[in-house]
Amino acid sequence: MKPFLLIATRAEDKAADDEFDQILRFGRLTASDVRRVRLEQAPMPALDLDDYSGIIVGGSPFTGSEPEETKSPTQVRVEAEIATLLDEVVDRDFPFLGACYGVGTLGRHQGAVIDFTYGEPVGGTTIHVTDAGRDDPLLADMPERFSAFVGHKEAVRSLPDHAVLLAESAACPVQMFRIRENLYGTQFHPELDAEGIATRIRIYRNAGYFEPEEADTLVEAAYQWDVSDANRIIANFTARYARSESPSSLRRAPGSE
Fold first, then answer.
1. pLDDT tens, 59-110?
2. Domains in the chain and their CATH numbers?
3. Half-sphere exposure (CA, 13 Å, Cβ side) for 146?
4. Which of 3, 27, 108, 122 could make an SS bond with 238 (beta carbons 3.0 to 4.6 A apart)?
5. Rounded distance, CA 220 to CA 158, Å?
C-alpha cells in the first residue's frame, strides 16, 4: 500500500506524537503506512502525490483568520506551503482529509468565509449528518447524529457554492464539507477520543481556548462522551483511499460526475 501523508504543525512533541498515534489507531494503519511531515520544524519537502494514497492534515495551534501582522514567520510559511500544495491537490481531486485546522486550510483555499463567529469551547458536541452527508462514502454507515470533540477559535461562517455540506451542529453550521469528490474537511476532531483530548487540554491549558483553572473539569467531562462513531471517519477515509494503483483511478462519491 502507498502510505498516507500526515501534515502536522504541533510544536509540542507529546501533542504531535499523540495525534500521530491516534490516526494510526483509528485509521487501522501501521507506522509504515503513514509518512509524517512536521511543518513547524522544517519547510515542506518536495512531494510527488503519486507516491501517496492520500493526505491527512491534523489540528494546529495556528489560527488562520488572525491578522497577518500578528502571525509568526513559521505560521506564515506553513500557510503558504499548504496553500501551494492544495493547488495541486484540488486540481487533481487527490484524497484529502483535514481535521479542524485542515477545515480552515481547505475552506480558505476554496473561498469559504472563516472567522471567529462560530468558535466552540473545548468538549463534546452532537453532530448532525445532512441529507448529502448520508449519501457520502465517509458518512454512509454513520448514525444521523453522533458525538465528537471540538475546540476551536475560528470556523467556517459560509461555504462557497461548489462545496457540499455534509454535517452541522447547533453551535457551528459547518462541521464537515466536501470539495469535488475526494477532498474533505471536518471542524470536529475525528482523530480524538477522551484520552486524546485530555492530553491536549493539559498541553494547551494556557493557549487561550479556556481558562487554565477549568482544565481538570474539562478533562473529567470529556470521559462522559462516546465519540467512537466520529473516530470511524478516519477508518472510512483510509479504507476508501488506500491503494497501490495510480491515483488516476480514484473511486467516486455516489452520484458525482
1. 887 888 888 899 999 999 999 999 999 999 999 999 999 998 878 899 999 9
2. 4-249 (3.40.50.880)
3. 25
4. 27
5. 33
Q: For residues 247 and 5, give the distance between their C-alpha atoms in angstroms, rounded to a whole number.
A: 14
Mapped onto helix, strand or coil, the DSSP state of residue 54 is strand
Q: To 10 degrees, what angle do helices 194-203 and 215-222 make?
A: 170
H/E segment holding residue 257: none
Amino acid at 222: A
Three-class HEC string of 111-154:
CCEEECCCCEEEEEEEEEECHHHHCCCCCCCCCCEEEEEEEECC
Q: Are strands 183-186 and 176-179 parallel, antiparallel or unpaired?
A: antiparallel
Answer whether 98's CB lies under 8 Å from 108's CB.
Answer: no
Separation in Å, CA 53 to CA 37, 47, 94, 111, 252: 15, 13, 9, 26, 15
